[in-house]
Amino acid sequence: MAKPLKPETVLKKLKSVSNTQDSIPMLSLWIIHHKAHHKLIVDHWLKVLKNSKASHRLTLLYLCNDVIQNCRRKNAAIYKETFTDTLPEAVAHLRDQSIRSNVQRVMKIWSKRGVFDSEYTDQLLAALLANRAPEKLRNKLLVEYKTSDLISEITQFKELEDKIEVDEKRLRAIRVDVSSTEAIKKLKDKVGGEKFSREFEESAVQLEEFLGQFEKYVEQRKQLLEVLEKGTVYY
C-alpha cells in the first residue's frame, strides 16, 4: 500500500520547480515514482498552473510533457490518462502571448510523435489559438455546470467581502501606534504599561484574524472567477 502523500509537499514542489536541465527531470521522476497519487498530483498541478505567472505556467507544461513522455516506459501510464482529462482545462491558462508559441511547439511535438491522437492535439491547438475551450471540455462543462454553484459562490464571496470590510474598520479602530510619543509615555507607569500591553495584544490578535480572513477572501475570489469562466461556456 502506498504511503500517504501530503498535498503541501506536492504544492511546494510544483511551485518551486524551475525551467532548468535538472529541476524538471528530477521532479518528473518523483511524480512518476508516486504514481499511486496521480490524481492528487495532477489536480495540484492544475491548481498551481492556474495561480502562477505565465513563465511558470510554461515550466509546468514542460514538466507535464516530461512526465507524459516518460511515464509509459516507467510503468506509470496512468499519468497520460489523467493529464488527458486535465489538459483541456489547462489550455485556457496557457494563452499568454509571451508563452503561446512555446506551448504550441510542445503540442505539435505531441502530434508529431503520436503522444496523443491527432484529433485530441488538434482540439488543444484550436483552443489555444481561438480562445475557446476544447469541445470535449465544453461538453463536460455543459453536463456538470449548475447555476446553483454560481449563486452559491457569489453569495459566499459577498458575505466574506462584507465581513472583511467590517473587520478592517474594527482593526483600524483598535490599532496601537507603537511609534506614538504618548503611547511610549504610558509605559512609564504600571497601569499605563498594562493597558498598553493589553491593547497591543488585542490589536495583534485582531490583525492575525483579519489576515486569515483575507486569505480566505482571496481564495474565494479565485473560486468565483473560475465558476464565472465556466459559466461563459454554459451561457
Automatic annotation (TrEMBL):
The keyword ATP-binding does not apply. PROSITE patterns: CID. InterPro entries: CID_dom (IPR006569), ENTH_VHS (IPR008942). Residues 2-132 form the CID domain. Pfam families: CID. SMART domains: RPR. Keywords: Acetylation, Methylation, Phosphoprotein. CDD domains: CID_RPRD_like. Signal peptide: none annotated. SUPFAM superfamilies: ENTH/VHS domain. Associates with the RNA polymerase II complex. This is Regulation of nuclear pre-mRNA domain-containing protein 2. It comes from Ciona intestinalis. The lineage of its organism: Eukaryota, Metazoa, Chordata, Tunicata, Ascidiacea.
